[in-house]
Amino acid sequence: MTSGGDAPGLNACIRAVVRTAIFNKLKIVGIQHGFEGLISGDFIPMNANTVSNIIQLGGTILKSSRSERFKTKKGRLMAYKKIKKENIDAIILIGGDGSFEGAKTFTKEHNVSFIGIPKTIDNDIFATDVCIGYDTALNTAMQAIDKIRDTAQSHERIFVVEVMGRDSGYIAYGAGLAGGAEAILVPETKADDKNLKEVLRHGWNRNKSSLIIVVAEGDESGGALKVADDVKKYMPSHYVGVCILGHIQRGGSPSAADRILASKFGYGAIGALLEGKSNVMIGMRKNDIYFTPLEQIKRHHLDINQNLINMMTTLTS
Ligand code: F6P
What we know:
By secondary structure, the protein is an alpha/beta fold. Helix content is 42%, strand content 15%. The chain contains 10 helices and 10 strands. It has helices at 10-23, 34-40, 73-85, 97-109, 134-155, 170-178, 193-205, 224-234, 256-274, 306-316; strands at residues 29-31, 43-45, 91-95, 114-118, 158-163, 183-185, 211-216, 240-244, 280-285, 288-293. Helix 7 (193-205) links the parallel strand 6 and strand 7 (211-216). The structure holds 6-O-phosphono-beta-D-fructofuranose.
């Protein structure tokens, strides 16, 4: 099952889960439309061929949803009945923190077994260094910044680029750093207006011919439009453009790193089931697979430490 917002690499993961299950002589069905499909019994048979030629595709062949019904006791009871009727022993849940919260509540009420696989372009799930989809989204955002830089440079303009991440700054920080942004505003730190002014003035005074500010959608500054308005106030003679990247960051063909991660997670999730593990999330730490009880899974934020701040200050100076 894929649940929550789509992320590049879901299909690569579905492929790995299905192929590993079949290789180990397990019977496997796809649950369509996330928890909504579990409630309504929207199951499809899967075999090695149903996952042919999908490793390179964005989105999810199983469809996804953010189910409101599953947040209710009644919805979860309906889902449980469908699980029993279909004789499902365990569910491989490719999801984010919202989906894992749902699974945790479900396991407290009913005797169900999950193996969680973390995916989200926001990369903000505890107990894994990286989630499926982050690398591709990061590269998409970086490439967009590179392209905006061409125009900014040619016309000597300032641009404010807003990236996704909900209340997490991973994409902003990563894409800003990789794209050579002059300033990066993330929710994990308080945006210092005075500091931003100084950075921009300093850049312009040393004859930089373009300035790019990357702002995370969840930053307390209020997003790219608001930041651009503020910048216009203190640099009135400058063109200040805004580019909100939005959902282009969620789609597209997954990067090699995401395909490999998704394959390792899918393969490892079935391995965990065969070893008798239950209600755990697979994760990647220091390049190694390991498992954490779903119970401990929560949101995790970018760690902004002094080293990071020093590096950013040095590189943008
Ligand atoms: O969690 C992934 C994410 O893309 C966030 O970065 C963003 O805030 C949110 O989902 C958007 O959700 P939706 O597609 O439902 O508008």
